[in-house]
Amino acid sequence: MKFRDLSRQYDALQDDIERSIRDTLSSGTYIGGDRVSNLEKALAEYVGVSNCIACGNGTDALQLALMAWGIGPGDAVIVPDFTFFSSGEVVATLGATPIFVDVDERTFNIDASQIEPAYALAIENGLSPKAVIPVDLFGLPADYPEICAICKELGLLILEDGAQGFGGSIQGKMDCSFGDVSTTSFFPAKPLGCYGDGGAVFTNDNEWAALIRSYAVHGKGSMKYDNVHIGMNSRLDTIQAAILEVKLKAFINHELDAVNEAAKQYSVNLSLFASQYGIILPQVPSGTQSSWAQYTIVFDEGWMRDRLRIELAERNIPTMVYYPKQLSEQLAFVDRCLSVGSCNVSKRLCRTVLSLPIGPYITENEINSVCNHIQAICSTF
Ligand SMILES: *Cc1c(COP(=O)(O)O)cnc(C)c1O
Fold first, then answer.
1. Pocket residues for ligand 1 (CB within 6 Å)?
2. Which residue is closest in CA terms to ligand 1's atom 1?
3. Over pLDDT 70: what percentage of the chain?
4. What are the E-state strand segments in 188-258?
5. Rounded Cα distance, 245 and 361, in Å
6. What are the CA-CA distances from residue 374 to residues 4, 138, 276, 290 (Å)?
7. pLDDT digits (tens, 9 = 90+) for 173-201
8. Structure pTM?
């Protein structure tokens, strides 16, 4: 069994993907062009925002947004402590200070009640608090109704890191539409992945969109050889756009439903014995839909997680630990970050979470088999 079986998706979509790639190869346009702008239009329409700018990857997407806001030394940006490295890295790349805050133990997403203390901590340290980067971890949109109310009150911008959340929604409003600027990643294993690196930025603000377009192409002005900012080179290849054109259709037509069905089946099966072994299943708040980038369970005790992981591996069932280390503990951030308290929930999750194999092409038999093995192994503890 594979952790996320991307080759099954390729088998299912092979004819369309190969046709789309061949068309691109014979078109003579390999960077930008109509394919990229048509994809941007389709993505913007699906997400429900007016501007989408495709770029090189999800990390660049975050960085481009912060650049458009002029964030740099002396500024503070609030980031959850339990996420992928990029969410905090981009803040430090620009010379600003990430302030890490704890997450909610049930949703794994930023604990909105920590934003105000983080704001105060920034001021105490002579920094100017500018923005929050909520992350839609494992596919679940963060608590935006709460986050937006607090940020409005404090005058903080919201940069939504939707790298894992693309396809999720709250009350029908799509993920990647909640931030002042939102971003996603098309890394192959994300909910919507290409066959290499890719990313996108979303915003309803036309001025920010124009700035982001400029920063993504060497800070171009009226044209490419007129440079008005120090920018970056961050573009989505036309071949990746050709692949995403096919994959976005499949994602909308059936993959998002299929992965939700898989998650439901996991929860139904696991709930028969989870509480007996101190296992907590992922929770989706009512009115919210996840795109299930990961199906992540939590153990009472770290040793159970570690032993189960080893024993599942012996039975050829791959699992992953997202994430083994909280950001505030990463060596790279030493002397470059602040944190509100010691983020004990994040610390505990790093020891107790386990992500199980999932994806739109996983079969019912495979899910049953994973669950049966988990039950059998836990009963020996
Ligand atoms: C994957 C990921 C990113 C970065 O995306 P890349 O395309 O790999 O640069 C950023 N944030 C989160 C939460 C991610 O999972």
1. 57-59, 83-84, 86-87, 135, 161, 163-164, 185, 187, 197, 199
2. 163
3. 100
4. 199-203
5. 19
6. 18, 21, 12, 23
7. 999 999 999 999 999 999 999 999 999 99
8. 0.98
